[in-house]
Every structure is written in structure tokens, then in C-alpha cells.
Design a protein that fits this description.
about 35% helix, Alpha-D-Glucose-1,6-Bisphosphate, Chain A, domain 3, 3 helices, single chain, alpha/beta
Length: about 110
């Protein structure tokens, strides 16, 4: 896992190193792991920033989570603290923020909260 994950998620050049296929597989694995630790269908929130690659990554991630039977709530464009707040408020099992913060436009990141 260390191959992909840094200290706070997977940060790569979007649609090349951070491909839709990779994001799909990671999301599917995440939904699988969550389902093993709960007695219900996991609910996962996804928020993103305004980078153009965010919608592609969000779609691949949603497909991966749904393919393992998780519930997904897409929050749209929202700051990381907003996603963290809604995760607790809505009692979601997990959440992901798609944002590369201060990196240049070609990068993006999937950060699990």
C-alpha cells in the first residue's frame, strides 16, 4: 500500500498516474474493508475542490464504492473541514476529499478522512 499512499492519501498527476482505474480499485477495496468492520451497508461521503480532474476522479471513486454495495453521497465542491463535519453529522462510515491543495493544476489527490 505504501506504493500508492503517502502521509495523507494518494497524490499523483490526474488521469495518468492517478488514473480512473486506480481510483476505482482503491475505492472498491475501501468499501470491502469497511463492510468487513460494520454490520450494515457502509455510507461514504465524497467532497472535492474545483480542479477540472475532480469530476473524473469522483466518478471513478463513486463507481468503485458502489460496485461493492456501499452507499455514496457526493457533496460536490466543499472544503475539507466541511467534509469532516458532515461525516460526523451524518454518521457516515468514511469520507474522501479529492483535492491537491497547493499543488499545481495537473495534480490531484484522494484523501481519506
Amino acid at each position: 500500500m505504501r506504493k500508492y499512499f503517502g502521509t495523507d492519501g494518494i497524490r499523483r498527476i490526474a488521469n495518468t498516474e492517478l488514473s480512473p482505474e486506480l481510483v476505482y480499485r482503491v475505492a472498491k477495496a475501501g468499501a470491502y474493508a469497511l463492510s468487513k468492520h460494520t454490520d450494515h451497508v457502509p455510507t461514504i461521503l465524497i467532497g472535492r475542490d474545483t480542479r477540472i480532474s475532480g469530476t473524473l476522479i469522483e466518478s471513478a471513486m463513486t463507481a468503485g464504492f458502489l460496485s461493492y454495495g456501499a452507499n455514496v453521497l457526493k457533496l460536490g465542491v466543499i472544503p475539507t473541514p466541511g467534509v469532516a463535519y458532515l461525516t460526523k453529522k451524518l454518521k457516515a462510515d468514511a469520507s474522501v476529499v479529492i483535492s491537491a491543495s497547493h499543488n499545481t493544476y495537473e495534480f490531484n489527490r484522494c484523501k481519506v478522512l
